[in-house]
Fold this protein.
Amino acid sequence: MANTITTIRFKSVMAGSKQSRKRAKTSSYIREHIARFSNSDPDTIRIDGLLNQYLTRNSAKNGDLVKVEIIKGAGIVSVKLAPEMAQKFAPPPAAPKQPAPQAKAIWGKTEAKPAQDAKKPAEAKPQPKEKKEKPKQEKKPEPAKAEGAKQPG
């Protein structure tokens, strides 16, 4: 296996492309460039996940230089981010998660969580209250209108 480090420049590829097509163009350009460089078929070239992330986040925004390491194997050419660039780009390791507390402390007392299997004892359901009837109000008769009076309108 032969390892080689090379630099790829994307500025000329990115010049007239739309923002949505830049990511696809960078990966296809890498395949073509490495195929010419290593005298291999573009279908046999495999791009590493970290390099793929780098291209998605950085190179699609600005067409800059990317250092890649080319590893030739038996019929397959692997391309990954060069070690000096990988150290700058790699995300920090995640901190181990702490286990969740099992008991809840309320006002200095610890209260254990109730088991979900234990059911509450059957309680008698309260019956709905009886409705009280309200006394009906009597309607007052309207004053009689005089027949000779003019109606508005």
About this structure: The chain has four helices and six strands. Residues 2-89 form a domain with the Ribosomal Protein L31e; Chain: W; fold (CATH 3.10.440.10). The two ends are 106 Å apart (CA to CA).
